[in-house]
Structure to design on (537 residues):
């Protein structure tokens, strides 16, 4: 009975999206709905007449209700109203005495009203159900699209990660080899030509060697940096004070005879990747040590500025040479340096490393400074891994 | 030097070969070095095949192995070697440019005896190669069946 006009979910969704684009096909769809109404009522009428012919009684009302329900279920409100009207006319004409006339006896009016109300109720239910279904289907389609997009992106991300890894590997292996050859053969040249080389040539050779070694250091630093973002972080409870102590132990080995007044406040227990946080601390503290080198009385302070719920802000302060705040935005870039190589050595990867570590801990890093007035580096940490 | 073990150097880059031989030569370790310039040659040598079919049956005292090699790469050689009952005793030192943790991990998992990253600085490189040569070809007692100069 409901054969025509019934479509499965995706057909319907497709039909809707076509209807949205082409108003003409919307009308066609409506026409099909009304057609369905007529067909259903006609089928109900046929069945009712047939049953009456076989001496079954009082079946017509149920059959017409069935027709109305089928129509409103499959074709919506307009066709449902048509089905109700047609049903009433057919019922009146074929089944209510006087038969084969559209005259209505006064006593039949309540049954018409009840029929109409019941039919409206059915239509209302099915209209509601249609709306819910449409919303659900829409949500499902949307979810499907989002899922596909997500899958596509994660595949792309994976591919680009693989590519990055291959790239880093290739730098590690292929770039270092020619560098080693440069340094090696320059050294051999210096050795074999020691007697015949003049002062100038020897100086050139020294510069080639220095450049090769510096490039080696740059490659190593860049690789360590890229490894840092690929490495998996292991978040766990950490004692920040202990992290600072460990960092200090690492740095003290290179301090020689430096006189530095250390001031280390008490620091809270926190959450994070211990070795990464230590690396960040080593970088910040060794920077402070480096840039206070020209001070006869270097002072370095490490402390906690604020602690609020899930956020803590630590700082490393020194009284070193500082920097011009107008270059502050360049501080954390890879290979960015604000001091000449002759004054303060370094590859310019330290603060970039710090920033990456702090970002991975859901925090921020920033600095305040004055030229010749010392510098303070702040970083915030959220509680990574506390859940 | 007495009792000098034979070194099989597996290295595809002629410049690296020259630098390594120079470093070994400073300590007179270079004349017992056999060079294989790709993985296939290295395997040919180890299995006495191809142009090494006529060589004596002794194993080298140590294998200095680069990882990135044409045809058969270093890790593959290492895998085959350590799976072979006769060859698995040969000490293998990976001598590579790669500082990648993955390579190091795989090498050790495959049973490498040492892993050395070639330093960029020439002095460090010479020191590293010399110490390797002295240790494996002179100080270390190689497993039975290794070639040595008496």
């Amino acid at each position: 009975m409901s054969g025509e006009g019934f479509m499965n979910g995706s057909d319907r969704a497709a039909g809707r999206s076509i209807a949205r684009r082409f108003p003409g096909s919307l009308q066609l769809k409506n026409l099909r709905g009304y057609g369905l109404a007529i067909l259903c009522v006609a089928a109900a009428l046929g069945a009712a007449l047939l049953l009456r012919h076989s001496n079954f009684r009082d079946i017509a009302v149920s059959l017409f209700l069935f027709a109305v329900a089928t129509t409103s279920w499959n074709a919506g409100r307009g066709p449902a109203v048509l089905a109700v009207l047609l049903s009433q006319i057919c019922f009146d004409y074929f089944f209510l005495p006087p038969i084969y006339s559209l005259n209505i006896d006064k006593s039949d009016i309540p049954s018409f009203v009840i029929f109409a109300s019941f039919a409206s109720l059915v239509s209302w239910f099915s209209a509601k159900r249609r709306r819910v279904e449409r919303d659900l289907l829409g949500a499902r389609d949307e979810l499907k699209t989002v899922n596909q997009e997500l899958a596509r992106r994660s595949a792309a991300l994976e591919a680009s990660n693989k590519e990055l890894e291959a790239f880093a590997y290739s730098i590690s292996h292929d770039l270092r080899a020619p560098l080693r050859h440069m340094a090696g053969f320059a050294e051999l040249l210096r050795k074999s030509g020691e007697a015949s080389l003049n002062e100038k040539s020897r100086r050139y050779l020294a510069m080639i060697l220095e450049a090769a070694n510096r490039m080696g250091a740059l490659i190593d630093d860049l690789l360590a940096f890229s490894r840092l973002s690929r490495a998996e972080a292991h978040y766990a409870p950490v004692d920040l004070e202990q992290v600072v102590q460990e960092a200090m132990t690492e740095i003290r080995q290179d301090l020689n005879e430096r006189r530095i007044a250390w001031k280390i406040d008490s620091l809270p227990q926190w959450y994070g990747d211990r070795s990464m946080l230590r690396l960040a601390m080593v970088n910040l503290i060794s920077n402070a040590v480096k840039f206070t080198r020209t001070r006869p009385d270097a002072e370095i302070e490490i402390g906690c500025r604020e602690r609020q719920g899930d956020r803590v802000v630590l700082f490393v302060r020194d009284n070193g040479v500082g920097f011009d705040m107008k270059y502050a935005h360049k501080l954390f870039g890879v290979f960015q340096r604000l001091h000449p190589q002759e004054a303060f050595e370094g590859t310019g990867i330290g603060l970039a490393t710090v920033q990456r570590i702090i970002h991975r801990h859901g925090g921020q890093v920033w600095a305040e400074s004055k030229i010749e007035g010392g510098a303070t580096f702040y970083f915030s940490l959220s509680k990574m891994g506390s859940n | 030097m007495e009792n000098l073990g034979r070194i099989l150097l597996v290295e595809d880059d002629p410049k690296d070969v020259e630098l390594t031989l120079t470093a070994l030569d400073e300590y007179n370790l270079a004349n017992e070095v056999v060079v294989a310039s790709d993985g296939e040659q290295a395997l040919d040598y180890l299995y006495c095949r191809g142009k090494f079919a006529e060589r004596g049956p002794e194993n080298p005292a140590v294998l200095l192995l680069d990882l990135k090699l044409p045809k058969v790469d270093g890790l593959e050689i290492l895998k085959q070697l350590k799976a072979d009952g006769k060859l698995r005793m040969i000490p293998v030192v990976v001598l590579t440019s790669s500082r990648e943790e993955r390579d190091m991990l795989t090498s050790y998992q495959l049973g490498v005896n040492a892993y050395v990253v070639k330093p960029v600085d020439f002095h460090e490189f010479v020191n590293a190669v010399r110490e390797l040569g002295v240790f494996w070809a002179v100080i270390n007692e190689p497993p039975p069946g290794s070639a040595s100069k008496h």
